[in-house]
Amino acid sequence: MESWFEWKGERCTEYGIHVVRQPEIIRPNERVTFTAVPGRSGTLTLQEGWDVYDDFLLSVECAVRDTAQLNAMLAWLKGSDKVTFANRQGGFYFAHIVNQIPFEQVLRGRSNCRFTLTFRCQPFFYLTGTEDITVTASGTYVTNPGMVSSEPKLAITLAGDAEITVGGSYFTLNGLTGIVTVDTALMETYQDYTSCNSHLSGDYPTLLAGQNIITWTGGVTKIVITPHWRML
User: What's the total number of domains in the chain?
Assistant: First the structure.
């Protein structure tokens, strides 16, 4: 049965909601600009960046079969979080609920009230069930199984200054020892709860689709990668 979605880590059926129609699986639009050039046929296509896509909307048609949890349902179906749909399992979207939900029929005591719930999703589908990758030797290859680059989190054990290459990204860490976290998604470098952004120079690392070589010189003894693999 594909009559569910998960939001904020909870399945809709726990609130008496069942999905009547799942959203279509669609690919987000690349963010591009089309410019007409005088004297030239067609248009000039300019990509805003590599792997840059627009948000998109996914809607599910739902039926409420149990009105006893109406207040809890209203409190649950709001804000931003992770959403998983039964017709695309194994991962999630970061999303925000954007529409008002018409519960007038429920409040009037009607059973099997139907409504549409619309999620504004960030463009990438993040894979779940992936394990961290431990790299202890410079020159190790890591393969990104996704369709697009990922924004990993690296826990780097340092004995001194280091120069590090991750795929096509290069950065240095200076003046630190111990375990330092470099989080590309957050664009933050920190140790425990202390910001260390001033100690990093260069690019925050990305793992391109396919093979990526991890190399370093200097005081690196180990890198633990939380990869954040993602698809379109």
Answer: 2
Q: Are residues 200 and 151 in the same domain?
A: yes
For the chain, the maximum distance between any two Cα atoms, rounded to a whole number of angstroms, is 69
Tens of pLDDT, residue by residue over 90-106, are: 999 999 999 887 766 55
Are both 10 and 109 inside the same structural domain?
A: yes
Q: What is the pTM of this model?
A: 0.88
Rounded to whole angstroms, how far apart are CA atoms 59 and 77? 13
Q: 205: Cβ–Cβ under 8 A, 6 or more apart, which residues? A: 152, 154, 164, 166, 167, 169, 171, 182, 184
Backbone angles phi, psi at 228, to 5 degrees: 55, 50
Q: Which residues does 209 contact at the CB level (< 8 Å), separation at least 6?
A: 144, 146, 147, 148, 149
Which amino acid is located at 174 in the chain?
N
Co-location of 118 and 221 in the same domain = no
Half-sphere exposure of 109 (CA within 13 A, CB side): 0
What six digits make up the tokens of 119? Answer: 């999620």
Domain membership of residue 194 as a residue range: 133-231
pLDDT in tens, 123-182: 999 999 999 999 999 999 999 998 899 999 999 999 999 999 999 899 999 999 999 999
Q: What is the CATH number of the domain that holds 30?
A: 2.40.30.200
d(CA 180, CA 215): 17
